[in-house]
Known about the structure:
By secondary structure, this protein is an alpha+beta fold.
Amino acid sequence: MAEYDKADIERRMGGAVESLKSDLSGLRTGRANTSLLDPVVVEVYGAMMPLNQVATVSAPEPRMLSVQVWDKNNVSAVEKGISKANLGLNPMTDGQNVRLPMPDLNEERRKELAKLAGEYGEKAKIAIRNVRRDANESLKVDEKKKEISEDDRKRLEDEVQKMTDKHVADTDAAVEKKVQEILSQ
Length: 185
């Protein structure tokens, strides 16, 4: 059985890019984005639960998030969870609704966030290169087992390199877009 699996390599490289996009969506840009609250967990009913399982999060205005808590007994727990998440947001309670105004970012914080976005991008590129290394190693194993010829190995290594280049370019584009979004606010 051949070690090399193109679909698996494509899936793993694509997964690294998707993971990066998810990480980048959590970076605050000064514009209200509901995914900013994705990492928030709330202690309710004796368990830790993601915020989206106890409330509805929406962005009614460009600089405001609104959290509609389903059970009024959980409002203070939601407030506490948002505060503990250290997102730099100041929750304001209005009945079962928690409003979160987005504070302006100062220039220093913008630069820090842009640098952090670059670090996320670098981690994604490392993951993509690790997948490439694994693929090239499996091609060498296949060649040693005489399942593919040396020419096939070289052709498939070129194919793997093209996939790597494509995913690295996607990573760079995602990071560049996020950096522009952070710096242009």
